[in-house]
User: Fold these one by one.
Assistant:
Number 1:
Amino acid sequence: MAISLAQSDLRTHYIRDPFAIETIDVDQIVQELAEASPNSTPSAWVGHMPLTEYDHVVLASDRRSGRCVGVMGARDGVTERDEEFLFIHTGFVAERARGRGLMRRMIALTLLRASGNDAMPRIIAARTSSRLFYRVLHDFGTRIPEVGVYPDLAAGPVSLPAAGLAQRIARQVARGTRFEPGTGALRGGLLAAGGAPLPPMLSHDKRIDELFGRTLAPSDQILAMVDLRRASEETIVEEARRIYRRN
C-alpha cells in the first residue's frame, strides 16, 4: 500500500507494499538528493541496502519538480521478549529541504500509517553516528508525555529497565558489535555497518554534542531509542499528527 500526503510545498509518500517498493529507482533518488545537496554525500546514507529489505519506506519530493528531497527506510523488529520495535535503518534529507523538520515528519507519518494498518510501533530505535539524527529522535520523544528517551540527556545513570531494553534491541540490530548499555555506545558500529567516519556535524544542542564527543570514537555509533509504551495511543497519534502538519 502506498499513501501520498501533501504538506506545504512537499509531497510525502509512505510505501509499505513490497512490490511497490521494488519499483523505486534508488539510483535516481540518490542522484536527485546529491544534486540538491552539493556539500553532502547522500550515497553514504542511502543505497547500502536494497529498499526491498525495508518494511516501511517514506519518500519526500518537491511538489513542483517531483524531485526527491528526502528518504527514510525502516524495518519491523522484535526482541527475545516479544517487544516489537520500529528500527529506522536509514534516512537522509537534502540540504535544500533542511531546517523544516522533514525527518521528524517522516517518522510521524510512519507511526500514523503503521497504526492504521496493524498496530502502532511503541518503541522506535536507530543506530547512528549523526548528532543531528539523534536530536531528531530526542526531540520527537520529548514532545510526548510519559515517553522515555535513551540515552536520556537529562537523567543521571541509565535506569535498569531502559538499559535492559536497549541491550535486547542491540542484540537484534547490532549483532557482533560490543554494546555499552550505560552510554548507548556501539563500539565499531559504523565500520561494522559498512560505513566510514564522516566529519561530525554539530546538532546545535550543547548536551548532544557533548554526549557524542565524550562517548564516541569516529568508528562508533549510538543506539538511540524512544520508548512510547507508557503513553496512550490517542496521545501519540495526536502528537504525531501535530508534528506531521507542522511546517
Number 2:
Amino acid sequence: MAERFYCVRQRAGNLVKEYRGTLPPRYAPSDTDEDRRAKADLKAQRRTVLNRDSTDRLELMIALMGKYATHYILEFDDEHLPERFADVRKALRAFLRRVERFRRDRFLDYIPVIEGRHGDHRYHIHLVVDRRQLPAETVRILWAGGNVTDWPVFKRRGKVLGFRYLAKYLSKERSDGFIIPIGRHPWSCSRCLSAKLPPPEVWLDESGQIEIPQGALLPKRRSGCNQFGSYQVATWIDP
C-alpha cells in the first residue's frame, strides 16, 4: 500500500500556505524525551501553515486585503500626544467612529497596532486597511491628531514585497507594563475582516510533493525529516 501524506492548505486572498507530511505519529509510553521532541516537531510544522503564532495570524489577515492593502501611520503632534496607552486607544476609537460616520456604517476591514517603544518613544498608530474602502485623502481629513504617512503593502516602487515582512514588523513590540500594558496583544483586527478567512483545506494524498504554480510570486519551500517521518512546507502568492 502506498504511503499517504497528511495535507493542509490555508488560503488568505492570493496567499497560499501548504503542508504535506507523513501521518502524525502517536506518542507512546515507551518514548524517550528525544522521541517526544522529534514527534512534537513534526506536528509543530503543520501548525505553521495555519496560525502558530501572532505573526502567522497577522500575515493571513493582511493577505485577505491582497494588493489593495495600504499601511497608514497615524502620528500625534505635541498638542495631541497622549500620555497613556488608554488615551491612545480612545483616540483610535474616536477616529474609527468618524470613519464609520463618513462611510455611513458600511463595514471596514482594518488592522490597528499601537506602538510607542521604539524610535523617539512617541505613541503612534499603525493602521492597515483596504485603500478602496479608506483612501489616503480621507484618512488625512478624518485624523485630527497630527501627521499621516501612507504606503502600499504588497508592492512598492515596482518590487513585490508580499505580506509577511509587514506582519513581522507590526509584531515587534511586546508588552512592557509601562508603554504597552502587560497582556496587551500587539495587534487586533475588525470582525468583518477575520470572518473572511476561509477554513483550511485538509486531505490525504499519496504524494508528499507540493506543486507551486508556475509564475507564483515569492515562492518559498522548506522540508525536514527525522526517524518518525518527514514534511514539506511551501508558501507562495498566486499572481
